[in-house]
Amino acid sequence: MPDAAGLDLIAEQLAAVDGDCLIGHSFERGRAELQIDPAKNIQVLQWLSDRGYSFLASLHGVDYYPHEPRLGVVYELLDMHEVDRISVKARVSVESPDIASVVSLWPGGNADEREVYDMFGVVFVGHPDLRRILMPEDYEGFPQRRDFPVGGEPVLFTYNEQGYGEDR
Fold first, then answer.
1. Measured between alpha carbons, how far is 45 from 62 in angstroms, rounded to an integer?
2. By C-alpha distance, which of 76, 70, 105 is closest to 89?
3. At what angle do helices 41-50 and 4-17 cross, to 10 degrees?
4. Which of 40, 46, 133, 146 measures 20 to 30 Å from 103, CA to CA?
5. How are beta strands 31-36 and 22-28 bridged, if at all?
């Protein structure tokens, strides 16, 4: 990971390109993190990719309830040549949970974005096939949100219940 000074340099360069895209940055417990404007995630991630952070190691969702904006998308990027890692975090509100899809930059992010959509309700604008990946298509709610009732009703996967086992 870039050290604290390296992260400051990255943040400085990024702010020089677009001063509005960076909300903040932090270096804690050996972890370098950029907090960005969700409306500019593609520009920031492309900029980092062009500078060596070209591998999307993971993309995951977070619920920061009760803090607003409540929903977070965290991108873990690797620089395979420098053996370096940086986290990029964008936060969106529950009322407007839209953020641009990164599948055009990293096709491997397809399933990760679908999972974050399915579990948290973040809508990835421009995703080629944004639909539930773990829960049934007709399921209501987002089970990984902190306000979701624990121990709720059992999930019935009935989509292909009829005809199962017949002439397979």
1. 19
2. 76
3. 120
4. 146
5. antiparallel
Nearest by Cα to 108 from 61, 63, 75: 75
Which stretches of 44-138 are assigned E, i.e. beta strand?
55-63, 71-79, 84-92, 98-100, 123-125
Task: Report how far apart the first and last C-alpha atoms of the chain are (Å, whole number).
Answer: 51
Q: Indicate the pLDDT class of residue 168, thresholds 50, 70 and 90.
A: very low
CA quadruple 38, 44, 48, 49: dihedral positive or negative? positive
Tokens of 19: 């001063």
Supply the pTM of this predicted model.
0.88
Alpha helix (H) residue ranges in the chain: 4-17, 41-50, 110-120
Average pLDDT, stretch 13-20? 91
The dihedral through the CA atoms of 1, 50, 21, 111 has a sign that is negative
